[in-house]
Design a protein that fits this description.
eight-stranded mixed sheet, 25% strand, 8 strands, 2 domains, alpha+beta, Sortase, Chain: A
Length: 225
C-alpha cells in the first residue's frame, strides 16, 4: 500500500512532464510563422521595388522618345526656315521620312509626321498610315500611339466636332481641318482609310483603345483649300 502511494506522485510528475514538449512545439511553430511573415514582407518589398523600377524606366524611355520627337520637330522647323530664306537647299531636310507636322491646339499636341508606319517610328512620332499630304485630294490617315497619358495620340478620344487640327506639309503650308466624326472599330477594320470623294480632303487619326483592343478613329474635313 505504501509503495502504491509512493508511486502516484511520481506518475503525476511524469504525466506533467509530458506537456513540456507541446509548449516547445508551439514556440517553434510561432518562430516558423514569424520567419514566413518576414520572408513574405521581404518579397513584397522586393516586388514593389521591381514594379517601381519597371514603371519609372518605362516612363524614362517614353520621355526619351518624346525628347527625340521634339528635337526632330525643332530641326524640321529650322530647316524649313532656312529653305524659305535661302536660295540653297543644302540646309533643307534630306531625310524624306519626315513629311510634315501635325498640331492639335485643344490637346497642346505638336509632332512631326513620318512618311511610313513602323513600330519603332511610332514610338517617336505619329506616322502616315495611308493617303497623301495636302493639298493632294486624299484621305490622309495618321496613326499614333496611345500611352494613356498626355503624349502622342493618347487623348484624341476627347476631341469633339468642330475642333481644329492643323497639318503642315513639307513646304510649310498650313492646312486646317475640322473634326466631324469620332467612333471605334475593330482592330482589323480598314474602313476608316477608305475615301469618299464627295467629302473633299479628309484627315483620319487612328489610335488604340487599350481597354477593349479596338481602334479609336477621329475624322476631320479640310476647311481651307
Amino acid at each position: 500500500m505504501n509503495q502504491i502511494l509512493n508511486t502516484k506522485p511520481q506518475e503525476i510528475i511524469h504525466n506533467t512532464d509530458t506537456s513540456i514538449p507541446k509548449k516547445d512545439f508551439i514556440l517553434e511553430k510561432n518562430k516558423t510563422k514569424k520567419k514566413l511573415l518576414r520572408v513574405q514582407f521581404i518579397l513584397s518589398i522586393f516586388s514593389i521595388f521591381v514594379f517601381a523600377f519597371i514603371y519609372f524606366y518605362s516612363k524614362f524611355l517614353l520621355n526619351k522618345k518624346e525628347n527625340l520627337s521634339n528635337s526632330l520637330k525643332t530641326n524640321y522647323n529650322i530647316s524649313q526656315l532656312y529653305a524659305k530664306n535661302s536660295s540653297s537647299n543644302s540646309l533643307s531636310i534630306n531625310n524624306s521620312m519626315i513629311i510634315g507636322m501635325i498640331e492639335i491646339p485643344k490637346l497642346s499636341l505638336s509632332y512631326p509626321i513620318f512618311s511610313s508606319l513602323d513600330d519603332e517610328l511610332l514610338k517617336i512620332a505619329p506616322c502616315k498610315f495611308s493617303g497623301e499630304m495636302p493639298p493632294e485630294f486624299s484621305n490622309l490617315c495618321i496613326a499614333g500611339h496611345n500611352y494613356d497619358n498626355t503624349k502622342f495620340f493618347s487623348n484624341i478620344a476627347s476631341l469633339e466636332n468642330r475642333d481644329e487640327i492643323f497639318i503642315y506639309n513639307q513646304v510649310g503650308t498650313k492646312f486646317i481641318y475640322s473634326v466631324f466624326n469620332k467612333y471605334e472599330v475593330d482592330d482589323n477594320d480598314l474602313s476608316p482609310i477608305e475615301k469618299d470623294y464627295r467629302d473633299g480632303n479628309e484627315l483620319t487619326l487612328i489610335t488604340c483603345n487599350n481597354l477593349n483592343q479596338h481602334r479609336i478613329v477621329v475624322k476631320a474635313k479640310i476647311e481651307n483649300t
